[in-house]
Amino acid sequence: MTANHKELLALDTAPGAEETRGQELWQGAQGYFLGLVLSALLTALAFFFTGSDWLWGPSIPVALSVLAVAQIGVHLAFFLHLTTAPDSVNNSLALAFGTLIVALVIGGTLWIMYHMNLNMPPMAQMEPMAQMAPPAPGQSRAASGVIEAASPIRVAAKVSGLVRSVDCEAGAHVRQGQLCATIDAPALKQAMTQSESALRTTQARVAQDRAALAAAQARSARRPAAGARVDALRAALSRDERDAASAQQELDAAKARQDDAKIVAPTDGVVLARNIQAGQDVDADAKQLLFLFAPEEAIIAFRVSSPASLGALKPGERVSFTVEELRKQSFDGEVLRIESGHGGGQVVVRAKNPGAALKPGMKASLQTPAE
After folding, report:
1. What is residue 78's DSSP assignment?
2. Which controlled-vocabulary keywords does the entry list (predicted)?
3. Which residue, 179, 140, 131, is CA-closest to 303?
4. pTM listed for this prediction
């Protein structure tokens, strides 16, 4: 220890504060008081700049950064006594090392959290994918899942016209194919009338062609020179028969389009919303929502950890599952789709839900075939 250090210890003065040598206590406190004043002034300026319109808006972050650097300088000079004196080197090194450690800890933590957030699925997705312990060989595997509400079905008008009647109200339970509304579509009626008229006209021409052909064939038996006339009538008959067949197809299509004027329930379920009333005009081109139906079914996504179990299932297959909240009651469903992934995948099951017993958020368990 040098004589200089011994003298500083005797004066109870920190290294780097050699200027306080020989000063009285109240004189040494002047440096701390000045630092306190400067620190308070810089803090007040920071609040002033952020709460007033004195500075240009985009320049406020720059001003705050300058004040922050100045604040650090005040603390280092007036409170930590970091100066350019030779005895202040140890303090400077200690501060630099501490800053490096803090930067490494904070930077490393942020880096780890960023990559975990990037590579891991959200917690809301991980909870339904919780896996159970591997079963013994030859046993089935239990896959857990969470019940979701089936997506509502939107029904819009397929034809334009005037709503003649409405037979389904919001909140009503309906069966698939049940008539909910009828639209009076003049365009469909006009197309139907035109198709029927065109069919009658072509059928009349076919009848005339057949009569003329029969008469021409009778004459050609007596007069061989009339054979050319017979060939022409046969060609005309063939052409009119094709026209009659085409007119019949158009009439059948027009009759089929008459069903577009009937709004029916697409599935068993509940009417969530009704946006039409009798006497209202609807436009098919506007894709206006007429009814919103909630199917009486539930969707369950089961997480399966075994790829072999996925291979044993296929879409359309009937499966059974139990629901914890309903005292392990068993339900039947149909495999809607299978989504394979790394190390397993998920089985999406659709089940009938009469009475809405299966509610969104309930936990279900599915037994998949053994490997």
Report:
1. I
2. Cell membrane, Coiled coil, Membrane, Transmembrane, Transmembrane helix
3. 131
4. 0.41
Note the CATH architecture for domain 124-151+296-368. Answer: Beta Barrel (2.40)
Determine the pLDDT at residue 23. Answer: 52
Residues 51, 90 contacting (CB under 8 angstroms): no
Domain boundaries, the chain: 3-118, 124-151+296-368, 185-259
Identify the residue whose tokens are 């054979």: 227
Phi and psi dihedrals of 265, rounded to 5? Answer: -70, 125
Q: How many residues are present in the chain?
A: 371
Segment 246-278, tens digit of pLDDT = 888 887 887 777 778 888 888 888 888 888 888
Q: Within 13 Å, how many C-alpha atoms sit on residue 140's CB side?
A: 13
Among candidate residues 97, 93, 94, 82, the one with its CA nearest the CA of residue 15: 82
Give residues with Cβ within 8 angstroms of 162, minimum separation 6. 183, 184, 279, 280, 281, 282
Please write the tens of the pLDDT for every residue from 50-105.
888 888 878 888 888 898 889 888 888 887 777 666 666 777 777 788 888 988 99
The angle that helices 227-257 and 186-222 make with each other, rounded to 10 degrees, is 160
The runs of H, that is alpha helices, within 153-290 are 186-222, 227-257
- Kindly report the number of other CB atoms within 10 A of residue 68's CB atom: 12
352 pLDDT exceeds 70?
yes
Range scoring the smallest mean pLDDT among 173-182, 200-209, 308-317: 308-317
CA–CA gap between residue 146 and residue 349 (Å, rounded): 11
Residues 336, 98: Cα–Cα separation, whole Å: 59
Which pair of structure tokens corresponds to residue 138? 């030859």
Question: 87, 8 in Cβ contact below 8 A?
Answer: yes
Helices (H), strands (E): how many in the chain? Answer: 8, 14
Q: 135, 142 in Cβ contact below 8 A?
A: yes
> 214 has which bridge partners?
none
Quick one: tokens of 7? 């003298």
Give the 3-state secondary structure percentages of the chain, helix then strand then coil, rounded to 5: 50, 25, 25
The residue whose two tokens read 């490096």 is 100
Structure tokens at 177: 């194919």
Chain centre distance of CA 203: 56
Q: Are 180 and 218 in contact (CB under 8 A)?
A: no
